[in-house]
Amino acid sequence: MPALVTSVAVLALLALGVTGVVALLDRTHPASPLAERCTAHLDGTDWTLSPDQAQNAALVAAVAVRRGLPARAVTIGLATALQESRLVNIDYGDRDSVGLFQQRPSQGWGTVEQIMDPVYSTGRFYDGLVRVSGYEQLEITVAAQAVQRSGFPDAYAQHEVRARAWASGLTGFSPATVTCSLRPAEGPADPDRALARLVRDLGELPVALTPAAEGAPATVDVTADALAADAPDRAAWVVAHWAVAVADEVDVDAVAVGDRTWSRDEPAWEPAPAPLPAGQVRVTLAG
After folding, report:
1. 3-class state of residue 47 by DSSP
2. CB-hemisphere CA count at 13 Å for 274?
3. 126-141 burial, b if ≥16 CB within 10 A, otherwise e?
4. Domain span at residue 51?
5. Most CB atoms within 10 A, among 8, 39, 142, 270?
6. Which residues contact 38 (CB under 8 A, 6 or more apart)?
7. What stretches of 150-231 show up as alpha helix (H) in DSSP?
C-alpha cells in the first residue's frame, strides 16, 4: 500500500509539472493571430478572398447593381478582375496596364490616374461588356475577351465558380452567404469615411446616422429599397453583404438585416435579437 500511495503521488506531481510546462508555453508562445479572410458560400463550398479583394469585389458588384445589370455581369466582371489583377488595384502590369482590370492608357481606356480609380475602371469595363451582344448567354471566356482583348483569353474560365459565388451573394440572390473573419478594429471608425464609401459604391441611399455616445458606438441605418424596389429583401442583402465585405476597410463592427446579424465577434450570420423591417440594414461602426 505505501508503494501504491507513493506511485500515485509521483504521478500527480508529474501531471502538475506537465500542466505547468503547458501553461508556460502558452504564455511564451501565444496563439497565432486570426487569419483574416472573407468568404462567399455557394453549393456547399466556401470561396475565400482577402479583405482587400473582398472590398474590391463589393465595388465591382455595387457598380453593376447601380446600373441595373444582372448578376451574370458581376460574375464576368469579378472573373475578369481575378485573372487580370487578382482583384487588387495594382499600379503595374504588362506594358502600361494598371488597375483592377489591367486597362492600358495607350489603348484608350483613360489616363493612368483615371484607371487607378476603381470606380472609373469598373465602369469602363461594364461600358464595354454591355456592348457585347448577348453577353449574358456567352461563356465567361468569350464575354471577358470581347472586352479585354487579352493574350490569354481562356484563363478567365478558371475563376468562374468563385466569381459566381461572390456575385450571387453581393447581388442579394444568396442571402447570408458573405462573411468575413476579422480582428478587432484598431480604433474608432470615422462615420464620414464610412458614409462616403457607401455613396461612392451604392449611391445616395436614404441613411440615418446615430453618432457614438458614451457606451454606444455609431450606427448607420440604410434604406436599401431603391436598389431593387420590387425586391426589398434582396436589396437589403445587397447592402448587408456589401457592408461585411468592406468592414475591414471602413471599420464596420456589425451588420444587421432582417432577422440575421454578423459581427467581428461572431463572424457568421446569426439570429438577431430583434428583426429589422424589410429593406432596412443597420451598420454598427467600431467604437
Report:
1. strand
2. 1
3. bebbeebeebeebebb
4. 37-170
5. 39
6. 48, 49, 50, 51, 53, 54, 178, 179, 180, 181, 244, 245
7. 160-170, 191-202
Q: Which residues does 4 contact at the CB level (< 8 Å), separation at least 6?
A: none
pTM to 2 decimal places:
0.88
Question: Quick one: DSSP state of residue 14?
Answer: H
Kindly state the helix (H) or strand (E) to which residue 91 belongs, with its residue range: none
Confidence of residue 176 (pLDDT cuts 50, 70, 90): very high
**Domains: count for the chain:** 2
Do the strands 45-49 and 252-257 form a parallel or antiparallel pair, or are they unpaired?
unpaired
Task: Locate the DSSP E strands across the chain.
Answer: 37-42, 45-49, 178-181, 207-210, 219-223, 252-257, 260-263, 270-271, 280-285
Does 67 share its domain with 164?
yes
Residue 49 and residue 148 in one domain: yes
Backbone torsions φ then ψ of 68, nearest 5 degrees: 75, 25
Grid cell in block for residue 44: 456547399
For residue 111, give the 3-state DSSP assignment. coil
Position 196, amino acid: A
Give the residue-averaged pLDDT of 241-249: 98
Listed residues 137, 170, 203: the one ending a domain: 170
Measured from the Cβ of residue 157, the count of other Cβ atoms closer than 10 Å reads: 15
- Please report the sign of the dihedral spanned by the C-alpha atoms of residue 199, residue 201, residue 206, residue 212: negative
- Please state, in angstroms and rounded to a whole number, the distance separating the CA atoms of residues 170 and 58: 7
Dihedral pair phi/psi, residue 34, rounded to 5°: -60, 130
191-236 pLDDT, tens digit per residue, is 999 999 999 999 999 999 999 998 899 999 999 999 998 999 999 9
| pLDDT band at residue 153 under the 50/70/90 scheme | confident
